[in-house]
Amino acid sequence: MITIQLAKETKEAFQKxxxxxxxxxxxxxxxxxxxxxxxxxxxxxxxxxxNNTNTGQLLQSLYQKQKGLEGEVGATAAHAPYVEFGTRPHxxxxxxxxxxxxxxxxxLGIPDEAVYPFAKAVCDxxxxxxxxxxxxxxxxxxxxxxxxxxxxxxxxxxxxx
Length: 161
Hints:
single chain; mainly alpha; 2 domains; two-stranded antiparallel ribbon; 2 strands; 67% helix
């Protein structure tokens, strides 16, 4: 799991405002968090679409959920952690690789009769080298970390007025 936390100054401002206007601050910060989660999900989707050669399964599995002042953006696709973190060398199952090559054969310029040998070569390369990390979640979070603090501070300032 990858987490993001508020900066110390933002936490302090939140706690001070909370003492004076508890319900209003919570509501404003929940709304700010909701906006941030939508921003993150959009950024992650754009990163995946731009940097991965995929069938769309990972993009379609993105989700966000929020409960109070806690939120989560993730993906339900089984291969999501491998895209994010990469893998060590291992022998992947052949059938999903062959299916992926079949679906992407026109994009990759592979004739139908070359799908099997190409899929075997992909499996052999993964067995030898593993897979490279793509970091759609971490890169998007790192690029937007300041935005969360800015949204929360703005919400607190609006309530304090």
